[in-house]
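Q: I'm building a small set of examples for a reading group on sequence design. Run inverse folding on the following structure and report the sequence directly after it, with nothing in between.
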């Protein structure tokens, strides 16, 4: 996403293609995009970048925002899904989407109807696996009963723990569903490269309106980054690498998706694979984190309204 939108102005297209292909060369096999990133431009970029080795990798994309209607709201009517999937396939230059997520739950459309539409697309071979993004535990169960879910995607990081408390992680474990944390570096904050003095453009950077990215909360939450940095110093690892290693150590079915537009950050993120955390390491990190109160909500009110909290 960050290559094309939402975390600042879009990167140069050639830069984005080169970065994605470099990631493949370094062993990355799972690439995540969505029609709303841009909108549309990121799917097109990903499609061009991955075309030479399409059969060697897995592509995830997402549907569910009312882009054409211009309302900014969500829409997951079955007829809408079956229409937009054709455009996504064209932009991705492929005949199938390996993992197709509902980007946000549509309260106006029963999740059973959404799952049924995806079931039809799977029968047609246009989609291989079904996913949900930011669903509640109840919605996961209802969808899974119609069309088994391969993955659930929700924000989860060392500093953002809602899914540990709301039943989502437990439900995924019970049902055998993979979990894909977006924002595994706290939307970049846990890298230690964002300070209270960092200027985020309100025209191009969504984070500028999020509570956790206010100058006062950026300052208050530095204690979280300090924990990661201090621990990393004993392991020759950066705070970003420790944060990613922490996620991967939680469960073997958790697959974080750190995004970047820079080759040095890609290499740094991949370096997390070399950081192995023992139970004692995890206990040490948890003890330090338990003494910190994270300040500010994870997104603003408008974005949080799209998070499914049905019970």
């Amino acid at each position: 996403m960050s290559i094309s939108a939402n975390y600042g102005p879009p990167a140069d297209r050639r830069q984005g293609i080169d970065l994605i292909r470099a990631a493949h060369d370094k062993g990355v096999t799972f690439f995540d995009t969505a029609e709303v990133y841009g909108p549309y431009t990121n799917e097109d970029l990903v499609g061009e970048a991955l075309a030479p080795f399409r059969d060697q990798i897995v592509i995830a994309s997402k549907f569910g925002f009312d882009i054409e209607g211009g309302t900014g709201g969500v829409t997951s009517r079955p007829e809408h899904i079956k229409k937009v999937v054709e455009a996504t396939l064209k932009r991705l230059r492929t005949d199938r989407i390996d993992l197709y997520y509902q980007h946000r739950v549509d309260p106006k459309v029963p999740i059973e109807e959404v799952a049924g539409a995806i079931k039809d697309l799977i029968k047609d071979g246009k989609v291989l696996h079904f996913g949900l993004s930011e669903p509640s535990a109840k919605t996961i169960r209802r969808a899974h009963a119609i069309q088994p879910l391969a993955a659930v995607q929700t924000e989860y990081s060392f500093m953002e723990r809602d899914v540990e408390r709301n039943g989502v992680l437990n439900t995924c474990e019970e049902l055998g569903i993979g979990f894909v944390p977006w924002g595994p570096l706290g939307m970049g904050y846990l890298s230690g490269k964002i300070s209270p003095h960092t200027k985020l453009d309100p025209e191009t950077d969504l984070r500028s309106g999020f509570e956790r990215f206010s100058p006062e909360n950026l300052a208050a939450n530095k204690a979280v980054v300090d924990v990661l940095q201090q621990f990393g110093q004993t392991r020759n690892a950066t705070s970003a690498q420790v944060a990613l290693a922490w996620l991967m150590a939680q469960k073997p079915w958790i697959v974080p998706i750190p995004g970047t537009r820079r080759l040095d950050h890609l290499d740094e993120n991949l370096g997390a694979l070399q950081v192995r955390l023992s139970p004692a390491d995890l206990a040490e990190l948890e003890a330090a984190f338990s003494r910190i109160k994270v300040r500010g909500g994870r997104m603003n009110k408008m974005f949080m309204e799209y998070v499914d909290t049905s019970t």
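The chain has two domains: 1-133, 186-311.
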